[in-house]
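Bench notes, afternoon.
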Amino acid sequence: MAGRTEVIDLWPLSQAEIEHRDGMDLVRLFDTDIDFSGLPPVTPQDAWDRVRRGGYPEAVARAGDRRAAWWDGYIQEVVRFEIAELSAIEGLLEIPRLLRLIAHANAGLLNYAHLARDLGVSPRTSTRYLTLLADTYLVDLVPAWTRSARKRLVKSPKALIADSGLAWHLSGLGPEPPGLDSGRHLEAFVLAELRRLSDLTVAGPTLHHFRTSGQREVDAVLEHRDGRVVGIEVKAARTVRAGDFAGLRTLAEVAGDHFTAGLVLHPGESAVAHGGGLWSVPLSLLWTGI
């Protein structure tokens, strides 16, 4: 069948798919005359409801304890059958623990040594377990972006639970309003949405993150095949401040002429241009498009 197939990764449903929309064509973000005005507003309640719900079809159709029971059963079935089939390994009880560790640091930089220490296994074993979780689409790894393709291979990726609802459940969070440390779950939600949209976009951009030695960072970097980049920062606050663009401005300096635009996605009322290709944009861009 060589040359006759097209591989499509089946992630949980995107928000656009749940709402029976086409969703955002990520290639359009690289248009120089792009206009984000007219996007629907997003309230914090709507944003967090979407994060908690996630995108597994069966979980979307359920609520409350029934949804939590489905997530628990799904993890058990994937570990007992899919992972067991992929590799005849011992210590299957450690894999759910690894999932919880990743969920508690959702969208954080991956440190293999620290993960192995917390799990109580060797770095080699933890790396093997993590590979199995990625192969079964429970975990997604987002590589670092630099101008040097070689350096990308040695910089730490971000690790996130591939479904935001499952991550929320694994973190032990309930229906109450999210705390100050829950911003990482909104970031992971956006990264997961971008992954789905990228995979569904013809000649879609690749997904990365950006971080400098001086701790300046951008949550997501989309790279076009021709080398152009769009940076995306995620904020849980409805009000976007000048300092929220600091990482994007650093990315613009590093990327030079390849920098196309920088967006701060947030639960807000409307899109605002801030000059230099920088915008603050409602999260609805992800499931509404432009």
